[in-house]
């Protein structure tokens, strides 16, 4: 008999004895007899305490062969199972799939586990715990993870002898969306933690080591991990992601994010500034502010923020499915404060919604030298009819008016976008309108996908996925072709210019070349060579990861720019360096 069963029997015996005793019966079988009034009072007190604890059914459930723990049904918050005493000897291996938010989530989860005593490994064979940070935006992404889980489960079975305690966990969006299938039907994982449950990872792993399958996929209206300082895994610290808000309220008809990440809530401004200052002190040269709808940021963490009179100012011609929000510190306030921390640190942000680009945000981007003149502007479609079906809140005309306004306020701005082909009811005419939008706008970078219907979404319940898969694929290939043509034109227009590049490392194709990104987030490749620090001085210094260098562009294609490096530089010294170089040329 195991400990749980023994405890269950003893508890049952005690309750039965207690019941008879309250009735005044003798109970020699249970070593009880009639007692005094004092004893009766003690028995009543014990009975009251007993009523506050877990019921008999809870112990029966936990003693079954297929144990599982579900935080969604946990009614006894005071009965916390202690964290794993062997945590300090356990190594965690992370695999991250999907968007930058998942990279940030990995850093948050690792920070929590590190504090609990776990160590991290980058080698799968060394791992005691394997955690997959997952994405549910498209079916292909989920299928990749299903295949990986089957491989890891087979590996776990093969390693039973020398890794008997190996645990597999799924974190993030897929954990929330497919909890039942992952945990109970397929039984491929030991631990599930949704995007708002990373704080519970040490406890969930403790339960897993106790023989249970453990899950917590509850969504929160408040969780932002504001007090958790992520452990940034940036190569030698040249760039980092900083999460500023979570969730989304837009409810676009195709999108699963509101159902896997929950409602919008923003991290307090003070905690964001603290993290950015820390990164600046560490020598980080580029910070990307992250959120599912990053420019709808609204800090309501303090009472005087809530009571402020400011309200959301949408881009002209745009609307939302929800009422106008009031009060709080807005994205423009955050961008203003962050950009003042370190004038030599680049600031980017993603992923925004086009509706949240009032003029004050655009003017701030233009004014601040260290806020990149690059805006991600997801269009999704060039057809007003399809945009209406997608519940995007704007028309083709409103989108083009916004592009014109952006380029008027920020001359030379680089634009990137997202597009979906083959959405419900999309006709060939709708597709051609999307192609014409791409040609009219001219983007540097694009993220293009065929539509993949997701359960729970508005489209799943109200629309028909009626575009055949071969047609979707054909339209996607045509869109990619047009996009590359236009991107090549935009990039070739930069030939002859001088670009300030933040060096990221060696080129993938040659160890004799370096690569980095310019202000517009376009990749720049150039030969590896020593460079002067100042034009007047002959001293040459090697170029290393995290350096800013000026690069003269000599050629371009749809994917990148090529050129030769001129001099070491910085955001503050760029104009001076360019001026001195031009004088030397003359």
From TrEMBL:
TRAM domain mapped to chain residues: 492-567
Organism: Sinocyclocheilus anshuiensis
Molecular function via GO: 4 iron, 4 sulfur cluster binding; metal ion binding; tRNA-2-methylthio-N(6)-dimethylallyladenosine(37) synthase activity
Name by which UniProt lists this protein: Mitochondrial tRNA methylthiotransferase CDK5RAP1
Enzyme class: transferase
EC number assigned by the record: 2.8.4.3
GO terms for cellular component: cytosol; mitochondrion
Keyword Aminoacyl-tRNA synthetase on entry: no
Xref: PROSITE patterns: MTTASE_N (PS51449), MTTASE_RADICAL (PS01278), RADICAL_SAM (PS51918), TRAM (PS50926)
GO process terms (BP): regulation of protein metabolic process
Reaction catalyzed: N(6)-dimethylallyladenosine(37) in tRNA + (sulfur carrier)-SH + AH2 + 2 S-adenosyl-L-methionine = 2-methylsulfanyl-N(6)-dimethylallyladenosine(37) in tRNA + (sulfur carrier)-H + 5'-deoxyadenosine + L-methionine + A + S-adenosyl-L-homocysteine + 2 H(+)
Family: Belongs to the methylthiotransferase family. MiaB subfamily.
Record HAMAP family: tRNA_metthiotr_MiaB
Cofactor(s) named in the record: [4Fe-4S] cluster
Pfam families to which the protein is assigned, alphabetical: Radical_SAM, TRAM, UPF0004
Radical SAM core domain sequence ranges: 234-489
Superkingdom of origin organism: Eukaryota
């Amino acid at each position: 008999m195991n400990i749980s069963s023994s405890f269950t029997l003893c508890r049952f015996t005690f309750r039965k004895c207690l019941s008879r005793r309250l009735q005044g019966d003798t109970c020699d079988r249970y070593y009880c007899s009639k007692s005094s009034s004092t004893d009766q009072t003690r028995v009543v007190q014990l009975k009251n305490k007993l009523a506050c604890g877990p019921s008999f059914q809870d112990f029966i459930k936990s003693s079954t062969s297929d144990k599982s723990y579900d935080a969604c049904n946990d009614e006894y918050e005071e009965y916390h199972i202690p964290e794993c005493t062997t945590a300090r000897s356990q190594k965690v291996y992370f695999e991250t799939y999907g968007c930058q938010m998942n990279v940030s989530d990995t850093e948050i989860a690792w920070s929590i586990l590190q504090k609990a005593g776990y160590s991290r490994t980058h080698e799968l064979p060394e791992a005691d715990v394997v955690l997959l940070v997952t994405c549910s935006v498209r079916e292909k992404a989920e299928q990749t993870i299903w295949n990986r889980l089957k491989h890891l489960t087979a590996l776990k079975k093969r390693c039973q002898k020398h890794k008997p305690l190996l645990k597999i966990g799924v974190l993030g969006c897929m954990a929330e969306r497919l909890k039942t299938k992952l945990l109970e039907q397929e039984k491929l994982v030991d631990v599930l933690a949704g995007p708002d449950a990373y704080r519970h990872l040490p406890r969930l792993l403790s339960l897993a080591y106790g023989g249970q399958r453990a899950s917590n996929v509850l969504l929160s209206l408040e969780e932002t991990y504001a007090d958790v300082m992520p452990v940034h895994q940036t190569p030698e610290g040249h760039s980092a992601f900083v999460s500023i808000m979570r969730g989304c309220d837009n409810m676009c008809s195709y999108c699963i994010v509101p159902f896997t990440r929950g409602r919008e809530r923003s991290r307090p401004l003070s905690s964001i500034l603290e993290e950015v200052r820390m990164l600046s002190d560490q020598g980080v040269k580029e910070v990307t502010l992250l959120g599912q709808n990053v420019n709808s940021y609204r800090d309501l963490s303090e009472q005087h923020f809530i009571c402020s009179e400011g309200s959301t100012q949408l881009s002209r011609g745009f609307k939302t499915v929800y009422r106008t929000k009031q009060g709080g510190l807005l994205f423009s306030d955050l961008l203003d404060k962050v950009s003042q921390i370190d004038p030599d640190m680049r600031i980017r942000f993603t992923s925004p919604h086009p509706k949240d680009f009032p003029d004050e945000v655009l003017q701030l981007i233009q004014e601040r030298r260290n806020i990149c003149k690059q805006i991600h502007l997801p269009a999704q479609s060039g057809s007003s009819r399809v945009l209406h079906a997608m519940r995007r809140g704007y028309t083709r005309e409103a989108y083009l008016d916004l592009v014109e306004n952006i380029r008027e306020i920020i001359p030379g701005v680089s634009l990137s976008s997202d597009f979906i082909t083959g959405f419900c009811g999309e006709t060939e005419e709708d597709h051609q309108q999307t192609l014409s939008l791409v040609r009219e706008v001219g983007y540097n970078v694009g993220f293009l996908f065929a539509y993949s219907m997701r359960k729970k979404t508005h489209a799943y319940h109200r629309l028909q996925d009626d575009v055949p898969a071969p047609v979707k694929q054909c339209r996607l290939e045509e869109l990619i072709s047009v996009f590359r043509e236009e991107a090549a034109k935009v990039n070739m227009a930069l030939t002859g210019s001088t670009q300030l590049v933040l060096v990221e490392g060696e080129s993938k194709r040659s160890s004799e070349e370096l690569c980095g990104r310019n202000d517009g987030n376009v990749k720049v490749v150039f030969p590896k060579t020593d460079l002067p620090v100042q034009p007047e001085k002959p001293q040459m210094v090697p170029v290393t990861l995290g350096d800013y260098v000026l690069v003269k562009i000599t050629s371009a294609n749809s994917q990148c720019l090529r050129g030769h490096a001129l001099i070491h530089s910085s955001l503050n010294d760029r104009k001076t360096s360019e001026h001195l170089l031009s004088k030397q040329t003359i």
